Protein: DNA-directed DNA/RNA polymerase mu
Organism: Danio rerio
Amino acid sequence: MWCRRTAAQQRFRPGWRNTHAPLPPITCWRSTHTQPHPHLFTCWTSAGSRRAWRPINPELNGDGAEILMKSYACQRRTPLKHHNAFLTEALEILAQNAEFNDNEGRSVAFRRAASVLKALPHRVKSMEDLRCLPCLGDHSQRVIKEILEDGSSREVESTRQSEQFQAMKALTGVFGVGVRTADRWIREGLRTPDDLIRTGQQLNRAQQAGVQYYSELQRAVTRAEAELIMAIVEAAVNSVLPGCQIQLMGGFRRGKEVGHDVDFLITHPEEGKEEGLMLKIISWLEEQGVLLYQKTTRNSYVERLDGPARSASNMDRFERCFSIFKLHSSASRSGSASTSESGSACDSGCRAVRVDLVVSPFSQFAFATLGWTGSKLFERELRRWAGQEKQMTLSSHTLYDSKQNLYLRAQTEEEIFAHLGLEFIPPSERNA
């Protein structure tokens, strides 16, 4: 039975280690027909002689197919529903807390560990199930071990119940408020959105809207509501520029039934026709009384200036609108938007929903589609793979190959995966 390490392009026997300077392992799952769970073994590559390899408890019994557990999340299929939510939810609380403390490295480490657990084909029952899996650092393993043995983690529960964590979660939950602003407010003694109102805190326009519609924006947005908003957006776009393509993005494109906001990507097959489109869409929506808040930014991306010289980032530079829609309760029956006064607080007959509108040139639409589908970690890992493994720069605008010194064009997501040397993973399995 053989495995292949892509980078080395060498065949080798699983479960054997070269005693001289081994390279990092590839972890594989071997599922069998006779046993309920796959067995774990580790494959090592080496440029040395095969005679120097020695076995390391491969535990290979019966016939079956190997499933490689690869280290990059963009190489793995990660479904929405998985077997280890009791572990991943704990790790994601620690990841969020690390973000609140401005420790991006620790946050990413916890999220990578959670991503590996999401991709496992079975429920973790013991630490032996995790032997040699990638991306599971000592801290993550300690948390997992405690949950497996005691049912919970003291660190996770202490974090979840801490005043600091709860205050950061409440304040960063305000539309327009980031971690640094929330941290400053907490140091000033503020803990909740109500405190911002009570103390007369100076807020910008986005934050004012975020506080005003806070309770509504905390409610989950259902797929049915997202589809109603899609109908409104389609009506707006088609009224000002017929022939556009409109896609529902983010978690809903990955198959989620609920989300915290709704994202749309818009383009026109005739390059250039999309220029200035956003302002026309916003004007139509305002005339219909749909918008409670909006802020529009222009497309500032210039390929010759923002290409390979600029490091890959999850922030693109498309023309976009960050907005809050008013979705009237009657929309569930008529599919139409409310036409009452924009800018006033929602009454009992409507609700506020966060909506992002993004306009992309047609030549960049495949890259924009990939970038706006998520998940956040999946996109981060795609950019890391491109840079570290392929010497390429990937963004939501383009893909640049530094070895060939050229831009690689693509009309579909499949073509982008092919350029990167990756197996295509459909949106429904990008929930890393």
The chain is about 40% helix and 20% strand.
